[in-house]
Design a protein that fits this description.
single chain, about 400 residues, alpha/beta, Rossmann fold, Alpha-Beta Plaits, 2 domains, eight-stranded mixed sheet, four-stranded antiparallel sheet, binds calcium ion
Length: about 400
């Protein structure tokens, strides 16, 4: 079916009030105790531990003389008992420290998709494990540069936004063939917001003290505005034109939060950019669609393109998210906070498979950055493996291989 189609940006706008919260915990099996220097006899120490419900000693803390002691009781209670002993200098619970790669961005705590502590009423850890993933992939010091370039076909970008400044490496538009006669033109300003939101999820300036964090914050962005029509619409030729531009300017990953009908031109653009999965190709990710049924949208539906479904803060399939055999991975897409186009310090919370797609593009970019020179086929298989299986065991229509998890990114 090669009917002319209008391609629609796939987002629905929702408002949400948010609170931030952080939970601290401690190891349930151990307690830390330091005896006074006067308590030298092992039998004496052992008796104190036994009365408090602790023991045996598992080890010591290097250079401090403190012991790590096993307990089957509540470590907080055990520590309290030990602290009442005249032989104990101090005792305390063995606290769990948060992953070190927690950035200082003012609103990071609202990004449940990156790190879910239950702060939006969801399930803790229903997230992409971004802090753990940044640590595991060597990004825990928040470098601003050095990542694989990500191309975005969308409504453009507010390049002067405080969380996007300096991110745009390539900027162009293809819009309205009656206006531009099919050529790529300069300029990628966003007059809609959708593209700026997507860009922030992929690559917002991170650990800069303000706003949000991006998944692949050290990736430069290639921006091509194809959805310049009313309400975030564009045509097949414009989208295909942008795919060609972003591939030719070196984007290793191309993110498309859009969808519509099948088209020979669109498919040919995807096939050309994918390069049969070779090392000179671009990995293409696209939104599965917001019809809430089994509809297959394009470009997601092409075999060359990774189709992305949306989850919520409880790792459930979003009610609007399409489910079909082509869905390849899932990511958070409900009530996602990101950068907005209306001012250099504006943010907005919206929903859609459009919002899930850039989470996946970010994970793919980090994989591509760690595997420079690898084939797109290899990067794609590593992306499929960097997931937590949800729903029916194995690949399924709602989640594909599962919700992406950056800490599994190889
Ligand atoms: Ca930021
Ligand atoms: Ca596909
Ligand atoms: Ca599954």
């Amino acid at each position: 079916m090669h009917r002319p189609t209008r391609i629609l940006a796939l987002a629905t706008v929702l408002a949400l009030g948010l609170t931030s919260a952080a939970s601290a915990g401690y190891d349930r099996d151990t307690v830390i105790v330091k005896f006074k220097d006067s308590a030298t006899a092992a039998a004496q120490r052992g008796a104190v531990l036994q009365r408090a419900g602790a023991g045996p000693v598992l080890g010591t803390v290097r250079g401090l003389g403190a012991n790590v002691v096993r307990t089957t009781a509540d470590p907080a209670v055990v520590a309290g008992r030990l602290n009442r002993s005249a032989l104990v200098q101090y005792a305390e619970v063995n606290q769990i420290l948060r992953a070190s790669a927690v950035p200082n961005d003012a609103r990071f705590g609202e990004l449940y998709g990156l790190n879910n502590t239950g702060q939006t009423g969801g399930t803790p850890d229903a997230d992409i494990d971004a802090p753990e993933g940044w640590d595991a992939t060597g990004l825990g010091t928040f470098p601003a540069t050095g990542g694989a370039k990500v191309g975005i076909v969308d409504t453009g970008i507010r390049a002067s936004h405080q969380d996007l400044a300096g991110k745009v490496a390539d900027c162009a538009q293809s819009r309205g063939f009656l206006i531009f006669a099919g050529s790529i033109r300069a300029g990628c300003a966003d007059d809609n917001g959708h593209g700026t939101h997507v860009a922030g999820t992929i690559g917002a300036n991170t650990n800069n003290g303000v706003g949000v964090a991006g998944v692949a914050f050290n990736s430069p962005l290639g921006i091509c505005r194809a959805l310049g029509g009313p309400a975030g619409t564009g045509n097949t030729a414009d989208v295909a034109n942008c795919i060609g531009y972003l591939h030719d300017t070196g984007s290793k990953v191309i993110s498309m939060s859009l969808g519509g009908g099948d088209s020979t031109t669109l498919r040919n653009a995807v096939v050309r950019a994918y390069r049969n999965g070779a090392s000179n190709g671009s990995l293409i990710v696209a939104a599965a669609g917001n019809d809430g049924n089994a509809t297959v949208n394009y470009p997601a539906g092409y075999a060359e393109v990774v189709s992305v479904a949306a989850t919520d803060n409880r790792d459930q399939r979003a009610s609007f998210s399409n489910a079909n055999a082509d869905v390849e991975v899932a990511a958070p897409g409900v009530n996602i906070l990101s950068t907005w186009f209306s001012s250099d310090s504006s943010y907005n919370t919206i929903s859609g498979t459009s919002m899930a797609t850039p989470h996946v593009a970010g994970v793919a970019a980090i994989i591509a950055g760690r595997n420079a020179g690898a084939t797109v086929t290899t990067i794609r298989s590593r992306l499929q493996a960097a997931t937590d299986d949800l729903g029916a065991p194995g690949r399924d229509a709602s989640f594909g291989f599962g919700r992406v998890n950056l800490s599994k990114a190889g």
